[in-house]
Amino acid sequence: MIIGILLRNYKIYQNINYIPLSAGETFCGIVGVNGIGKSSILESLDTFFNYKPWIWNLASRKQGQQAKPYIVPIFLIEKSKIPAKESMLAEAISKVMWNIEEKDVSPNNKGHFETFNRHRNSLLKRITPKDYYLLPIGKDIDGDLSFSIFNRYKIAVALGIDNKVDENMSIKQEDLKSHLGANNLLNVIISLYEYLYIPKDIDPSTFMKLEKHEIQVLMGQTLSQVIEKNLPGETVRNINRGLLQFLDNLSKDLRGYSFRKRTDRQSGLRKGDFNSLIIEHFFEARKFHKQEGGHWIEIKDLSSGEKQKAIIDLAFSLLTNHRGSSDNLIIAIDEPESSLHISSCFEQFLRLFAISVSCQQLLFSTHWYGFFPTIDNGFVSVINRKEGVHIIDIVSLNNYREEIKQQKVSSKGKLPYDIRLKSINDFSQSIISSLISEHPFNWIICEGSSEKLYLDYYLNDLVKEKNLRIIPVGGAAEIKRIYNYLSTAYDDFKDDVKGKIYMISDTDKQLVKYTTQDQNNLLCKRIMNDENNKKTVLEKIDSVIASPPTEIEDCLNGRLFHETLLYFKASNTELSFVADNLKEEYELNSYFYLDMRPTEKVELDNFFNKGNNKWEFAKKYLEYLALPHNTPEEIKKAHSKDSIPSWINDIRTFFTYGRKKS
After folding, report:
1. Mean pLDDT on 421-448
2. What confidence score (pLDDT) does residue 216 get?
3. Torsion sign over Cα 449, 455, 458, 460
């Protein structure tokens, strides 16, 4: 994957710029105001991989700068993917990048190195250098090799040409140009990837032709391959043989005349000739259509928003249903929300995230920030410009709120920190728009990804039948923030609202308190265990009853919860207190079933707060829940396990019948 890129004097990027793109995740966004250079990043990679035109930065050319434009992607590549012949050189260059320090960098490049170093530290939290090469390797406008700006001398040592550097410790270009090993490494790396760029101003009618290169990249096969599969060489030879025989017979009948080529060689048709004819007369006649009811509508007749959606739908369908492996495919999309109604933006970005899971990497630029609170695996590059200089930082979607707070301090206000405001605002607008649309959506807003797993399982039918979307937003404080936005907007549109929203928080020790007003189609509750009745209830957010602290793990089927804990007990010392024998109390939820002492509750909390345990536990719990029951004893034990918890049924009732009157 490409984790970053160095651009010099390319389009809007004057002089040297280091742009981080990812720290190991495949979903990679680029945000910033119009004209800041988002599209230039995606175009530069199209230039690098697909030989598209170079565009020299206008200001640098006018000023007569001699520094040639270059594009140097920073690749993160599994070591097993580089052939043995190139691996020694790759190892040497990678070692420089993994270990270079600030003292090794010239003063002119310290700012770029600081950005790179923060980026590298983020990367090191997710991967181990022993398994990956970190390789800066690219080319300049003349097609010649170019490397890292951080320490050219160390790169020269890695290349074995440290005796051929100039007085500025730069590698001489002629020595780079003739370095066979480095050129081979560049070619090997380029061959590992296919890069597909979909610009904002693309003509969908042209893009969606089967004979276009871009569609064939998405299919993972060319039309020529399809034709050759169905037109064997023997068939071509038979056709040629028959046609030539026909001409020979005709010549005999014409007695002294003949239909011939001008040359003496009277060759027949080649496979390529057949391919061209078939593509021209079979495939070019077929246009991309969308089915609407019983009719088919050609892509050119759709609205601008529908065309944009169709492009993403086509890419998703080909990658997931048609193409084989997409491990080598990098897709870049410029402003995928362009022309879309705001109510459709959320679905578009969910589809983009699904595409990112199916390919090597998805890069996109956007002005819509509503995906920030809803997608927790990915990175966003935030681009700003101050006094003519690009300032770029990278934010993890997993904890972007905390990172933005930290970066606001470390950057001394240089970065744009309206992200939280814009993300919540865009997301809330999208929800409200979806509630009043002709085919309204329904929403559950919950705290974390593990909650989403459980709710997805129990309410799967509503996801399909009621257009239900279940979104984790990262904690009770974030739910409060979204509720305040939604409730204000809801009042303005409540007479037109058709969809419903249910917001669910935990009952935490440090309770996030705020006043809520239950509307017919908007509820905000928290889960809490009722110790008198030994069951989980949905309590009002501002209720004075706030004990005991309750998370979703306290509200599951007790026996199954115990079984799942036993699975994790062997590898987690915190769970040593968990008894090996299961109780027969099938009806109790997990909190009352375990009946833990305070110290045991602390140990259980330690287990769930460690690493990714909540997520892994939820997956295993649901795996057990889905197991078939064959014997009468298993069916008996499963009776309670399979029954939907009563508090889940209360949520189901809200989406099926409406709010219960209290």
Report:
1. 86
2. 87
3. negative
Q: Which residue has the higher pLDDT, 402 or 594?
A: 594
Between CA 640 and CA 589 the distance in angstroms is: 10
Q: Is the dihedral of CA 353, 357, 358, 362 positive or negative?
A: positive
Per-residue pLDDT band for 660 (boundaries 50, 70, 90) equals low
**How would you label 304-331 residue by residue, b for 16+ Cβ within 10 Å and e otherwise?**
ebbbbbbbbebbbebbeeebeebeebbb
pLDDT of residue 639: 47
Neighbours of 614 (CB within 10 A): 20
**Alpha carbon distance 521, 220 (integer Å):** 46
Torsions phi, psi for 289 (to 5 deg): -125, 155
**Rounded distance, CA 296 to CA 314, Å?**
16
Distances from the Cα of 159 to the Cαs of 169, 179, 311, in angstroms?
14, 8, 43
pLDDT tier, 184 (very low <50, low <70, confident <90, very high otherwise): very high
Q: What is the pLDDT of residue 451?
A: 93
In angstroms, the CA 644 to CA 204 distance is 46
CA separation for the pair 647, 458 (Å, rounded):
11
Q: What is the Cα–Cα distance from 448 to 195, expressed in whole angstroms?
A: 34
In contact, 441 and 435? CB cutoff 8 Å = yes
**Residue 247 pLDDT > 50:** yes
Sequence-separated (6 or more) residues with CB below 8 Å from residue 585 = 558, 559, 593
Q: d(Cα 400, Cα 407) in Å, to the nearest integer?
A: 10
How many residues are there in the chain?
662
Residues 55 and 571: their CA atoms lie apart, in Å, by 56
| b/e map 517-539, b = 16+ CB within 10 Å | eebebbbbbbbbbeeeeebbbbb
CA distances from 308 to 254, 340, 345, 518 (A): 60, 7, 11, 37
The pLDDT, as a whole number, for residue 77 is 96
Which residue is it, tokens 């809007």?
12
Q: Interhelix angle for 613-625 vs 449-458, to 10°?
A: 10
Which pTM was predicted? 0.76
pLDDT exceeds cutoff 70 at 239: yes
For 198, the enclosing helix (H) or strand (E) is: strand 194-198
Q: Is the pLDDT of residue 355 over 70?
A: yes
- What is the distance between the alpha carbons of residues 443 and 501, in angstroms, rounded to a whole number? 5
Q: Decide: 233 and 271 in contact? Cβ < 8 Å.
A: yes
- Per-residue pLDDT, 552: 95
HEC string for 387-425: CCEEEEEEEECCCHHHHHHHHHHHCCCCCCCCHHHHHHH
